Amino acid sequence: MGYYKFSKFDLLTLVIVFYVVHCENDFDRVLTNDRISLLSFMSGISDDPERALTSWNASNTHMCKWYGVECDMTMSRVVKLNLSHKSLRGIIAPALFNLSHLAILDLSGNFFEGRIPFEIGYLYELQELSLSFNLLKGSIPEEMGFLQKLTYLNLGSNKLIGEIPKSILCNGSSSLQYFDLSNNSLSGEIPLESQCELKELKFLLLWSNQLVGEVPLALSNITKLEWLDLEMNLLTGELPSKILSNLPNLKFLYLSYNHFTSHDGNTNLKPFFASLVNSSNLKEIDLAGNRLGGELPSIIGDLSTLEQINLDTNLIYGPIPPQISNLVNLTLLNLSSNLLNAIDLSLNNLSSSLPSQLGSCIALEYLNLSNNVFEGQFPASIGNLPYLKELDVSFNHFNGKIPQSVQESSTLKLMNFSYNNFNGNITNKGSFSSLTVDSFLGNTNLCGTIKGLRNCRRKRARHFLIAILLSLVITPVFCIVGLRSKFRRQRPVLSTKSIKDEKETHEEEKYPRITRSQLIQATGGFSPSSLIGSGRFGHVYKGILADNTPIAVKILDSKVAEEISGSFKRECQVLRRTRHRNLIRIITTCSRPDFKALVLPLMPNGSLEDHMYPRHIVKKGLDLVQFHASVQGDVYSFGVLLLEIVTGKRPTDVLFTEGSSMHEWVKSCYPNKLEPLIEEAIMRYAPSGLSADNRKIWADVIFEMIELGLICTQYNPSTRPTMLDVAHEVNLLKQYISSPSIEDTSIN
Prior knowledge:
By secondary structure, the chain is an alpha/beta fold. It is 25% helix and 20% strand. The strands form six sheets. Strands 2-3-5-7-9-11-13-15-17-19-21-23 form a twelve-stranded mixed beta sheet, with helices on one face. Strands 8-10-12-14-16-18 form a six-stranded parallel beta sheet. It has a six-stranded parallel beta sheet with strand order 20-22-24-26-28-30, with no helix packed on it. This is Protein kinase domain-containing protein.
């Protein structure tokens, strides 16, 4: 009996020992296999300028501590690889997809070339995949349909061609939430059918491709969809009203620059807007560039959550319905380049300045803006409307002179400028010859020859000189006092004088002639090794001309080049005349029907992005004291730049995670949640060893920069300040932070 017990115990011990040894061997084998897969992937990388993979070559560094690698130690497997935005060049080696437990793979923002290997279908555990902003070409492998656990898929901004594999969208999985194939050259129809189960999909981005056909009806089954972007394709058919009526969670709808039509033979827009009434969170609609016909229906006023509507470049006609005033959250309404013939927005509480884009409504015959709170100067472009017959702007707060273009109009017959703050001389000539004083009542600063108006008196030169001297004294005082108060106001900042372009004193040189073959030779055939940047509109290559002149060549994408063909030469002439120490002057252009390029001087110190987002972890960046603003330029772009500098983020960094724009993301923190952003900015830009007082000054300046950035990026262009005002405020901030109380304010 004792012998039996000993044998049983001995056998159990042997089993345990065998199991432990077997597990240890499996543990080592698994780690070795994953390590081999990563090293094989690294062998396909030809350039690592930021030395991101240095730790991968260190023999004494455990694989799970390599840069970008994360492991699940409970099963000793690699589960995450993130090498995004490291400027890596090369191919994606198929061995990478032997990492069978990989859950997250992010290689976005690099220069990977070649095709996406079909072996990617082996990553059965993959949940998030981003290969966006690379140079990948070829078709999307069908095998990606095996990735049934995907929640996030982003292949946008590559050179992918061919049709979208049906297997990606219709593989029996319902976990996908984000799907982005935008900015490629994909063709064919959108492969959605009724059996596709995309119950969790919230983002569908397919913009800037060559997709054809109608929007598939199966899209109406994706009831959680929030963001639908199909703009800049070749889609046809009626606007997808039946589909949209089943999308109650829709927030952003972009269908611009396709070939859609409205209902009933391109004459009826009502079904489309009616289909959106149940989308209670809808914020933006973009239908521009479709040549849609019909009148704007009154039901548009029921879309009360709308913030932006872009309907420009269509064939919309008739009046603007008064119900549009119900859109109390609206910040942008673009109706330019249509056939509208009547706009009646009277008896509302509309405020701010009047957008000059109204001058694009070339078919406009009747414009009634009376009894509102419009302010600022009246746009001269409205006086140039060729068919305008009646104009009523009474009972507002317009100021300045009534534009000469209004008086010179040959079509205007009835006008009412009463009860505003207009000033200047009104003569009884032109379209004003039939008017009486009743059209100008309540403007105490008007004078002229119309009966009932007071006569204009010539001011003495001495009074004029005194006014100039007073303005020279008072203006700096107001500017300094207004440093902190100006940005607190909710009303728009207006400039009372336009900024005239400085006249050229020398005749400009003509474009030097450079042929396409010369550019090919200079850039090595536009080789990948010469590529220094890529974007939505094309690629930039470095090169050297035959005379040893270093150049940068921006090649416009063929689709973009085709769209702007008519204005390319004109835009280049404008850019060539532009003079500013911070702007690169165009050397020349190369324009053919199938090829358009800008030739620029090569900047040896790199791009603005290199200074804003330094590649190495050192205290390096923009010098806040040297930072300045031109008095002319794009206010919105300058505001985005300000927010980028302060936050250290690109505008695209917050798009998916926050579901919004840079402006909205920063605005959500303003004013009580800005402290973390301000502290991070101080750490990046301020010199070390600041005293408490100087640190407070830095915090104040950064806070002011955030406010300035938010004001410059407001959705409504008319509520943004002018660049003259912005330049002035930036100059005051420079003076404030450069005061003697602050030592060594440069950012090294």
